[in-house]
Amino acid sequence: MKYFIFASLLLGLSSCVESEKKQTLSELLAAGKWIDLTYDFSETTIYWPNNPTGFQLKTQFNGMTAGGYFYASNEFYTPEHGGTHLDAPIHFAKGKWSADQIPLERLNGNAILIDIRAKAQNNADYQISISDVEAWEKNHGNIPEGSFVLFRTGWGKFYPDKAKYLGTAVKGEAAIPHLHFPGIDPVLATWLVKNRTIKAVGIDTPSIDYGQSKDFKTHQILCTENILGFENLANL
């Protein structure tokens, strides 16, 4: 099973189609199955607990105008770090790419999916390790160069239940010490930087760092290398 990621829309494409001749991109897209990896933005969207507000949608106008035609227009507000979203490298690395500076070719490409549900299901503080990746590579070969590396912890089954998904129903700064969800071990992040060439990582939890992280070291390591991070992925 192959996955093709368009990060600008966060849509994954899987295809089992084999062809004797090389497929064009158009043929690949037409033959594959599209998988939406995003959650919608609404009053249920989960945000990092210390954000003072969540998603807000306000109607500017919705109805018939004085000119006799229908017109609808809204305004919305949302913090950066909630729902399915991209962590641009500047998030934790001064001088690195902001979202508008990321080259288009870094926002699409092949992706692999590493399933660690068996280890995470009974350990909310599980940190994905080098051995988890090596186990995947034993069956599939080394991570292809330029891939998106996606991790399936199973945490998506809790979304949008904040208490289960985040590990606490507390809001504000007081919630931070009580966060519990799996993430990527900084040791693995360093190993990926030194031993593999990847474009991005993605995970079905609120953060690529596990909930109890105090220094967000995985963010620091990957962002410094302009490696993108996708959080709160759906349907992995």
Can you describe this structure?
With 236 residues, this protein is α/β, with parallel strands linked by helices. 19% of the residues lie in helices and 26% in strands. The chain is built from 6 helices and 12 strands. The protein has helices spanning 25-31, 117-120, 130-140, 162-166, 186-195, 217-224; strands at residues 2-6, 11-15, 33-36, 56-64, 70-77, 85-87, 108-115, 127-128, 147-152, 183-184, 198-203, 228-231. The strands form 3 sheets. The chain has an 8-stranded mixed beta sheet. Helix 6 links the parallel strand 11 (198-203) and strand 12 (228-231). The model is unreliable at 1-19 (pLDDT under 50).
Features:
236 residues; alpha/beta; eight-stranded mixed β-sheet; two-stranded antiparallel ribbon; 6 helices; 26% strand; globular; disordered N terminus
